[in-house]
Design goal:
Elements lengths: L2 H18 L9 H4 L4 H10 L17 H17 L9 H5 L3 H23 L10 H14 L18 H10 L15 H18 L7 H5 L3 H21 L47 E4 L5 E3 H10 L4 H12 L1
Antiparallel strand pairs: 1-2
């Protein structure tokens, strides 16, 4: 795969992620739209509220070039404050549209956002930072506890290209969501593509935030594999609060503070249901639902009950009461 193709894919993923955060500025092209620094400041404020010094920022349209540099210098300064790796990176590099540095900065920003959200959801972490290793161990534990044999050695494990591990992980967090009749062995490129496409479809059906392409799974793009795994983990950790009080989580003791249940990796709460019934789920037809017993001692369908109520004669006691009123 050429470097240009990889760059285009990453630009697309970061563009979708930025726009999903709900920032005021809509991004059409990452490399062009971030050059004045304003969009990046908006993203930083979403990821870490209150960290941006807005009084020192200039809002577009910006005519003076040095104002753009000031914005981008603040972006780089905040990145260093968040412990990003920004060696020999200056605000002017962003103004000049250095694609490599822009992508590197955005990846660290996206990863920081993911880890912070997972940290907030995992009450048992007790303020401890969530690491890439935690995400890896969680995924492997989920699959193992579900009775599956697949394992992910790292986020660049080439065995992930067939997609089987992620399908088993999705099945582990929601057993009914995967139709195994649609899953291939993942031996050929075409079978891998089918599995990868199905993974993205199933994850989106659950409500996970997905920004990668099937090719990212087939070629085991380390960054995108991490975001996929973290998104599934985030969705799974959220479920206990949305289910009935009697529901229990797996051996991971998954729970999160009530104050953080409105967060999501992309900044918008997924609206998908916590359960995804498949074709085999039994649904009782409305016409078979029985109403309470009628006066005759037999149960009536709901629709017929309504008709009986509408046609019933008034009770005899009311007639007697009416006669008394006439005599008076």
């Amino acid at each position: 795969m050429s470097e240009d193709v990889q760059t285009c894919r990453e630009e697309r993923a970061f563009r979708l992620w930025i726009n999903s955060l709900g920032v005021d500025t809509y991004v059409n092209n990452v490399f062009e739209d971030v050059r004045n620094g304003w969009v990046l400041l908006e993203v930083l404020d979403k990821v870490s509220p209150g960290i941006v010094k807005w009084k020192q920022a200039s809002k577009p349209p910006i005519k003076m070039p040095f104002r753009k540099v000031e914005n981008c210098n603040q972006v780089v300064g905040i990145g260093k404050e968040l412990k990003f790796s920004l060696v020999n990176v200056a605000g002017n590099d962003i103004v000049q549209g250095n694609k490599k540095l822009i992508l590197a900065f955005l990846w660290q920003l996206m990863r920081y956002n993911i880890l912070q959200l997972l940290k907030n959801l995992r009450s048992h972490s007790q303020g401890k930072e969530v690491t890439d290793a935690d995400i890896l161990n969680w995924a492997n534990s989920k699959v193992k506890n579900a009775g599956r044999t697949s394992e992910m050695e790292s986020f660049k494990d080439k065995n992930l290209s067939n997609g089987i591990f992620f399908l088993e992980l999705l099945s582990a967090v929601e057993p009914r969501v995967v139709n195994w009749h649609l899953v291939t062995k993942g031996e050929t490129d075409e079978e891998k593509r089918l599995n990868a496409t199905y993974i993205i479809s199933v994850a989106r059906k659950l409500g996970c935030s997905i920004f990668l392409l099937p090719e990212d799974i087939m070629e085991v793009n380390q960054k995108m594999i991490l975001t996929l795994t973290a998104s599934i983990m985030y969705w799974s950790l959220k479920q206990p609060a949305e289910e009935a009080p009697t529901a229990t989580s797996n051996s991971e003791n998954e729970s999160f503070p009530n104050g953080n249940d409105n967060l999501s990796i992309e900044g918008v709460v997924p609206e998908a249901s916590s359960s995804c019934p498949d074709e085999n789920t039994d649904v009782v037809p409305p016409q078979l639902v029985e109403a309470p017993l009628s006066n005759t001692g037999t149960s009536l369908p709901v629709t017929e009950k309504k008709e009986c109520i509408g046609n019933e004669a008034p009770p005899q006691e009311q007639d007697g009461e009416g006669e008394l009123n006439k005599e008076m």
